Amino acid sequence: MALLHYFQVTAALPTAKETALGDTMTQSANAAVLREVQAERPRRCKPYTVFTAEQRATIGKYTSEHGNATAVKKFKANMEGGELRESTVHLFKKHYFEELMKAKHSVPEVKSIASRKLGRPLTLGHQSAGIRTSEL
After folding, report:
1. pTM metric for this prediction
2. Domain locations in the chain as residue ranges
3. Which helix H or strand E contains 91, and what residues bound it?
């Protein structure tokens, strides 16, 4: 029943008195509808692995000292259920070096790496700062 993906059952299921069908037909139809509604749908993609700011800094520092492949092997063993790819480790290393360059004049140790903004940038780009939301 592909339509149940788009609609939710809001009313109660009909009884045999409300339909022209017999009691057994109504019960079997209601049971089939309930099975379909309560069936667990397969996920389209795996859930994302979320890293804390401290984990990003730890992985980035280790990667800068030992390399991407070694860091993946070490931290993948410590993770439960999530995935850790070499591209993710490389990104954490890049952000680690960026944070080191920012903190070069003060504290040379990076304890956390904040998450970045995700998604597509605004269409207007640099011009969006001058527009108020009331004007849209």
Report:
1. 0.56
2. 53-102
3. helix 86-102
